[in-house]
Amino acid sequence: MIINMAEEKHGHTYYQWIYASIASIGFMLYGMEAGWLSPITKTLQSENSPLGSPLSSSTISVCASVSAISSAVTVPLYSYLVDKYGRKWIIFAITIPQALSILMRIMFPNVVVLLIARSAAGISASGVFTTCTIYTREISQSNMIGKLGSLQVVMQFTGFLIIYLIGAFFEYFTILWIFLAFPIATAVLMISAPEAPAYLVKRGKIDEAYKTVAFLRGVTKDDKIVVNEIDEMQKQEEEFKSISKIGMRTILRDKSWRRGLIIMLATFTVHAWNGAFAILTYASAILSSTGNVFDISPELQTISFPIVMIIASLSLTGIAERFGRRVLLAAGFFFSALALTALGVAMLVQQHGYMVPGWLPITSMMVASAMYAGSVRPLPYIISTEMFNFQVRAKVMGSIVMYAWLVVATQLFAYGPLADTLGLHGTFICYGFINVLGVILCYVMPETKDKTDEEIRHVLAHSTKSQTVSQPT
């Protein structure tokens, strides 16, 4: 697949690709941090642990989950800061706690500092999901939102792949020194990035907004494309000037915003309980439980999943603007449901003494992972940024991201008891049914691709069901 960044009929998209890619490095940092424990857990639990003594499995679990908790707690702070100081400089700022987190692990190798460092990394991750998503949406022209938004998941799983690779070949401190280079590079690159035009309009910097949109679109300031975009932003700004303060109470009183928020919270619940997390975390154990033996080392098994996910997310980048968001998300939930149910049924059949094809479990896991990367993971975030206008986007996204982190934490803690109670087969069949709920949610969700804020608000306020399914263009 070749991504065309060449000059189009009118203007070009070079700078949108460049700065969306730079902002999306934040997701690479998150992927590296999320995957960091995987290659070094064995080292931390060994007699020669760099922390002075081996860590117990329970301590490792706490290290894995503490970042999700700190992420959820700090989301409201980013929702305030991103509107107060701008999208660009908050992306710059989120590299600081990540860099400090890595430095703490290098300079003070002990358990207490490790927990504090992971909490600091969670603070950075909170900013990534709140701010980088908004920034990418607001520098993108309407027919590029899906493509540039899908870069985030490509970067995230690239981060997993990078940390797994360096973790397989380098020792504990070398891994951290290499890791440290990434937040520093992100901070340096963000200095040259433009501020999001929507924020500039919100702050009354209209002339700068004209220049920024013209620069990003590859046209002149007086071009009709630029004038129309800024006029639409100013129109929304004037519309909300009469409201002294837009808080969550105001948002919940508005029928369209309230309905949109409820739909997205429900979608993120299914997103978190999709089942892909269990596959990523327990791939080797799940494969072992099927009774199929693969002559592949654990390191290679681990690396195979982010590779599949990167391919899937790159595929989304190529087709994101050809199909409606709802179509792609519904397809992701549907095929995830089939794959996870097939995996659970295969385990159940084998448990009763029957044989299952050796390819079925691994294929099911790969399909579920690919659907997560190419649909279930990125599309709810893209849809959320398109569903709400820039006046409330930061606050709504803050609420959604905070909720997403909390529900991910519940899934993280619940997987073990759920597997013990229902068995692995029951757990994956349960995940399959949860994905079916996701397909149903897509039916009531408005299509946001190529729709203006006013059109989406009208659908949310007046329709009892969503628009007709978009066809490929």
Automatic annotation (TrEMBL):
<keyword id="KW-1133">Transmembrane helix</keyword>
<feature type="transmembrane region" description="Helical">
    <location>
        <begin position="172"/>
        <end position="193"/>
    </location>
</feature>
<feature type="transmembrane region" description="Helical">
    <location>
        <begin position="303"/>
        <end position="320"/>
    </location>
</feature>
<keyword id="KW-1003">Cell membrane</keyword>
<feature type="transmembrane region" description="Helical">
    <location>
        <begin position="59"/>
        <end position="82"/>
    </location>
</feature>
<dbReference type="InterPro" id="IPR050549">
    <property type="entry name" value="MFS_Trehalose_Transporter"/>
</dbReference>
<feature type="transmembrane region" description="Helical">
    <location>
        <begin position="354"/>
        <end position="375"/>
    </location>
</feature>
<keyword id="KW-0813">Transport</keyword>
<feature type="transmembrane region" description="Helical">
    <location>
        <begin position="327"/>
        <end position="348"/>
    </location>
</feature>
<keyword id="KW-0812">Transmembrane</keyword>
<feature type="transmembrane region" description="Helical">
    <location>
        <begin position="148"/>
        <end position="166"/>
    </location>
</feature>
<dbReference type="Pfam" id="PF00083">
    <property type="entry name" value="Sugar_tr"/>
</dbReference>
<dbReference type="GO" id="GO:0022857">
    <property type="term" value="F:transmembrane transporter activity"/>
</dbReference>
<feature type="transmembrane region" description="Helical">
    <location>
        <begin position="89"/>
        <end position="108"/>
    </location>
</feature>
<protein>
    <recommendedName>
        <fullName>Major facilitator superfamily (MFS) profile domain-containing protein</fullName>
    </recommendedName>
</protein>
<feature type="transmembrane region" description="Helical">
    <location>
        <begin position="261"/>
        <end position="283"/>
    </location>
</feature>
<feature type="domain" description="Major facilitator superfamily (MFS) profile">
    <location>
        <begin position="19"/>
        <end position="450"/>
    </location>
</feature>
<dbReference type="InterPro" id="IPR020846">
    <property type="entry name" value="MFS_dom"/>
</dbReference>
<dbReference type="InterPro" id="IPR036259">
    <property type="entry name" value="MFS_trans_sf"/>
</dbReference>
<keyword id="KW-0762">Sugar transport</keyword>
<dbReference type="GO" id="GO:0005886">
    <property type="term" value="C:plasma membrane"/>
</dbReference>
<keyword id="KW-0472">Membrane</keyword>
<feature type="transmembrane region" description="Helical">
    <location>
        <begin position="396"/>
        <end position="416"/>
    </location>
</feature>
<feature type="transmembrane region" description="Helical">
    <location>
        <begin position="422"/>
        <end position="444"/>
    </location>
</feature>
<feature type="transmembrane region" description="Helical">
    <location>
        <begin position="114"/>
        <end position="136"/>
    </location>
</feature>
<feature type="transmembrane region" description="Helical">
    <location>
        <begin position="12"/>
        <end position="32"/>
    </location>
</feature>
<dbReference type="InterPro" id="IPR005828">
    <property type="entry name" value="MFS_sugar_transport-like"/>
</dbReference>
